[in-house]
Amino acid sequence: MELIILPLILGIIAFFLPTNWVRPFGLLASLSVLAVSIVHLMNFDPANYVLILNPAEVFPLGLTFKMGYDGLALVMVLLTNAVISIILLANWNREISSNARFTGLVLLMQCALLGLFTSLDGILFYTFWELTLIPIFLILYWFGKQDNNRALFKFFLYTLLGSLMMLLSFIGLAYFSPNFSYFQLVQANFDGKAVEAAMIMGGILFAFAVKIPLFPFHTWQAPTYTNAPMAGTMLLSALMLKMALYGMIKWMIPIGFEGLVYLKWPVITLGGIGIVYGAIIAMKQKDLKTLFAYASISHLGLIAAGIMLFTVSAIEASMVQIINHSIVAVALFLCAGIIEDRLNTRNIDDLGGIAKVAPHFGFWFAVMTFISVSVPFTAGFIGEFVLIKELFTAHWVIGITAASTLVFGAVYMLRAYQGSMFGPTKVTVFKDLTWNEYAVFGILTLAAVGFGLYPQIIIDFIKPSIKFTQELMAGDLTFTKK
Amino acid sequence: MGKDLLLLTLISLPLIGAAINGVLGKKMPKLIVGSLATIMVFVSFLIGLTLFSGLDKTTIVHLFQVAKFDDFTLDANFQIDSLSIWMTLIITGIGSLIHLFSMGYMSHDEGYHKFFTYLNLFIFSMLLLVLGSNYFVLFFGWEGVGICSYLLIGFHYNDAEKGIANSLAARKAFIMNRIGDAGLLFALFMMLNKFHTLEFVEIGKMITASPELYTGIACAITLCLFLAATGKSAQIPLFTWLPDAMAGPTPVSALIHAATMVTAGIYLTVRSNFLFELAPTTKDIILVIGIATTVVAAFIAMRQNDIKKVLAYSTVSQLGLMFVALGMGAYTVALFHVTTHAFFKALLFLGSGSVIHAMSDEQDIRKMGGLSKLTPITHITFLIGTLAIAGFPFLSGFFSKDEILAHAWMSSPIVYGILMIAVTMTAIYMFRLYFLVFHGSFRGGEKLKSHVHESGLSMTIPLMVLAVLSVFGGILNLPGIVFHNAGHWMSHFLESTTYGLNQIETEHMDGKQSIILMCIASVVALSVMTWAYITYVKKQAVAKEDADMNAWEKLSSNKLYIDELYQTIFVQPILWLSTTLGSQFEQRVLNNGIFRLTSAIEASGNYTRKWQSGFLSSYLFWMVMGIIGFISYYIIKSTFWN
After folding, report:
1. pLDDT tens string B152-187
2. Is the Cβ pair A422, B154 closer than 8 Å?
3. Cα–Cα distance measured from residue A329 to residue B445, given in angstroms and rounded to the nearest whole number
4. What residue in B sits closest to A403 (Cα-Cα)?
5. Which of B143, B213, B372, B612 has a CA that sits 20 to 30 A from residue A174's CA?
């Protein structure tokens, strides 16, 4: 339980600290939470569930307040804690990191995310899902661009609509399950009412689709990213999107499998469209952040489509890819942030020749570019390989569509890199990297290469958690694997 | 040391070299950086020789399991057999010579240590590609060499004049290669689904056990494999990146874009020969594409005026010739040509590098001429390379080309006829190049002439070694009529790893036919040489300026307008789509849709506001309070009352 309480308490403390204490406090706080989760990791056996909150009785309205984690959730917990630390580290040389409100909100965000990943109760899951909105919304509102109300409104509207649907779905689920405990929900008996199940799952899926975001629910993303401060974009892209993907694997598939038959191909199709659509739009974007936002639609379309295949390999690869995408998101938005920080612009047309004046940044941006186009020795290589393979096995059309990311990804990423770093020297003064930026790039590279060489470490962890997929596949008659 | 340890050392030495130079290279003296990189590759070559001499049966070295998924595993395994070791010898052998050459060639470059880091990294990736025992490791290396190629083509991205062009060329190469890579990926998926393994040996076993089961899938797989090969080995339709890739430093062109990486497609095909043997349709397609590429590229090469562009199109054309051999199922013959081509094309590229170095980075042959006296060693070695590629009797290129032509003659006289046209064109553009550069009078002006000098030893030694190899390389696979029993050593050596048409060597056509074909080839080479000598030396003809060209020359000089064609039918539409989707569809359709919805909600909001105070704040506030309350209630309860 200390896993969730600790960031909450630390976050509240952060609000009241004097300015010059905030920065070290924030980093130390996030590192201590990370340390706590590593202690959890040490004592963890992937085969079991660890319950951190387990009241025996059932509360009114079927609430159970169960919390705990399995391998899958623990991976997400560790990812959250690591990414939060990295985000704070990346912001070390920026003014924002000395802001008490900012640091406090990031820690509260961490608390909400950890709560979400360890929820084992439907309503609790929904509540944390909503809770994450508050800190991110305030970060965007307080620290984003001044005239970003329209973008914020769009973001809020979308997520609100999604949440509403999710709430309705959970209420609907109450008819099929005695209470909201995860363990009861996964045994929810739809009695062959597949259409009802599909409708209920559709509601949850809508919330996920908005957050991922799946085409065509993505229009909030680019303006929100563009207007957000660097840390906000990183939080959104590296962590908040992952809530939805995690939700799909952990909640949606096991609970509503009967209904998902109807949703499988529609979602895969939308994912496939997203892969191509995001990539094509990214090709001509001038703002680096917008470009990376569309790239993200492309990458996540692939993961979402992969998850909806419901095969064990695809879900394992999705998890590898989820982690990889977090690395890539932090990396790319840091690069964009560094450029914006130094030059007050992110427009590729105004950039050029940076590699000459800041060779170290040139080198690390190149490394990050290669990581994001999934070259060998990076986690994305294995993840993409298996995901596209599974899609190709399901149907060759979607396989070929997905494989286009191989080519298009290279097109837009190399254009972004070469356009800003090479070419005519338009930039003459550019402060090269600071120590914390070096550290972040170094950590991210190590992680990407480590998971690229030995992704098995992730797979071993989550294998027992996603066994259900196999069982579902074997047990369900209405659904046949192609 | 056991074989497996030797193999792992062989692979990891270049990686270690890259790591040391990458991290510390900037602070080390250039001599140490260059020597370290060269020695790493050379020691790998020596280890390769050791393995080569102790070669018996196929050995698999298991390193570790990368990942185990539900129904398949991805393993880091390596394979020692005649094919992989042969390729290793070419890569590390030619590789160390080119490393040595680069020590002189790049000596004035500020990115010296970076260059050697990339070069070593390339060797490492290439070794992964040829030594992997399954398609997954092969794919690893395949992508790896693509990245190194990208880095090295765009090496001079900071160049004041050509910087942008260089990085664009690098990008083009990477993207076009990735199109091919997608093909390889599909082939891998199909194999995984059909065979549940990617090990060469396993798949080979399954196929040879019951070939009739796999004829359909073999066709699909091989087509995808061939798509990959067209990307890496620059065949139609994916060949336009290779000439642009000449933007890289010349040693790179010699190593990557002539001797090793571009032959990866041929290696892939030979490695998968058991699949190709089941797919006659694919083989026919390969044959046709190979013939088309060899003719088209030779045609374009005839009127190029950049010394490296001529050689680049020549490479494309020669690779086409190798694919012709593959299309006929003559795998070992293709590898023979890969080998001799690696000798003489590396020689020619390094020679051109020596010329460019001497000419203070001038690459236009219209400004050269009469270099034979100024750079004697470069001249002699370049002449040897020219003679070898043009098929001058008894040099290496003569024998390897003759094998392909002989197979063509036996399969169909038409194929033979077309190939002869290509061979003639090869001789024409090579002798044109040679005479324009080394004979006649110097056309670059007095100022430039005073700077022209012969290159240093580190550059001329590799030239001389390669020249010797280009002369005697043919000995590797002499036709049966020369030494009746000792002939075709290389074919026999590689037999264990290939099936296909190798039998044809042993029952080679009768001596008479063979000798006639050789005579025809010699006559063609010699007469073209004489003609070129008369035109360019006696009549002192120089390369025409663009304005004076007639129709066919314009076609050749403008590369048949293929780049423009691709630009119009692929690049422009996609960019148009990108703009349209980004501005029109995104804004008008999707966004407007949302804002209609917004106004609808606002309208309903006005109604609800009556019984609900501040929409956002109260909603969220009470939720937060509720959750905090519940949690703290429960914690307090469980802590204190238990």
Report:
1. 998 888 777 787 888 888 989 999 999 999 999 999
2. yes
3. 55
4. B182
5. B612
Distance CA A430, CA A354 (A): 7
Strand A50-53 and strand A67-69: pairing? antiparallel
**Contact list, A470 vs chain B (CB under 8 Å):** 70
Alpha-carbon torsion A191, A197, A200, A205, what sign?
Answer: positive
Nearest CA-CA partner of B480 in B469, B495, B490, B472? B490
Provide the whole-model pTM.
Answer: 0.89
Of the residues B75, B150, B185, B191, the best mutation for testing chain A's interface (the one with the most A CB atoms within 10 Å of its CB) is B185
Burial of A191 (0-12, 13-18, 19+ CB in 10 A): exposed
| Short-list B313, B190, B328, CA closest to B270 | B328
Residue to substitute from A105, A119, A127, interface B, most B β-carbons within 10 A: A127
Per-residue pLDDT of chain A (482 residues; tens, 9 = 90+): 788 889 999 999 999 988 888 999 999 999 999 999 999 998 888 878 888 888 888 887 788 888 989 889 999 999 999 999 999 999 998 888 888 999 999 999 999 999 999 999 988 999 999 899 889 988 888 888 876 677 787 788 788 888 888 988 888 888 888 888 888 888 877 777 778 888 888 889 999 999 988 888 888 888 888 888 999 999 999 999 999 999 999 898 888 888 888 888 889 989 999 999 999 999 888 899 999 999 999 999 999 999 998 888 899 999 999 999 999 999 999 999 999 988 888 888 888 888 888 888 989 999 999 999 988 889 989 899 999 999 998 888 899 999 999 899 999 999 999 888 887 777 778 888 889 999 999 999 999 999 998 888 888 888 888 877 666 665 543 433 32
Facing A284 at nearest CB: one of B143, B178, B582: B582
Exposed / middle / buried, residue B374 (Cβ in 10 Å: 0-12, 13-18, 19+):
middle
Cα dihedral B223, B86, B3, A449 sign = negative
Residue in A157, A389, A404 closest to B598 by CB = A157
Cβ neighbours of A382 in B, within 8 Å: 66-67, 74
CB pairs under 8 A between A and B: 151
Angle of helix B112-131 versus helix B3-24 axis, rounded to 10 = 160
Question: Residue B367: which of B456, B437, B282 has the closest Cα?
Answer: B437
Omega prior to A55 cis, within 30 of 0: no
Residues of chain A contacting residue B582, judged by C-beta atoms under 8 Å apart: 281, 284-285
**Buried/exposed code over B615-627 (b: 16+ C-beta within 10 A; e: otherwise):** eeeeebeeeeeeb
Q: What is the mean pLDDT of chain B?
A: 84
Smallest Cβ–Cβ distance between A1 and the set B70, B630, B635 belongs to B635
Bridge partners (DSSP) listed for residue B75: B65
Q: What is the DSSP string of B576-634?
A: HHHHIIIIIIIIIIIIHHHHHHHHHHHHHHHHHGGGSSSHHHHHHHHHHHHHHHHHHHH
What is the phi-psi region of residue B109: left when phi exceeds 0, alpha when psi lies from -120 to 50, beta otherwise? beta
- Cis bond before residue A213 (omega within 30° of 0): yes
Q: Which residues of B touch A377 (CB under 8 A)?
A: 140, 144
Alpha helix positions (H), B25-81:
30-53
- Cβ separation of A134 and B634 shorter than 8 Å? no
HSE-up (13 A, CA, CB side) for residue B611? 2
Cα separations (Å) of B66 from A323, B145, B208? 17, 20, 28
Per-residue DSSP letters for B356-402?
HHHTTT--BGGG---HHHHSHHHHHHHHHHHHHHHT-TTSHHHHHHH
Tell me, yes or no, if B24 comes closer than 8 A to chain A by beta carbon: no
- Tell me the H-state helices in B154-214: 163-195, 200-209
Q: Are A351 and A429 in contact (CB under 8 A)?
A: no
- Secondary structure of residue A181 in the 3-state scheme: strand
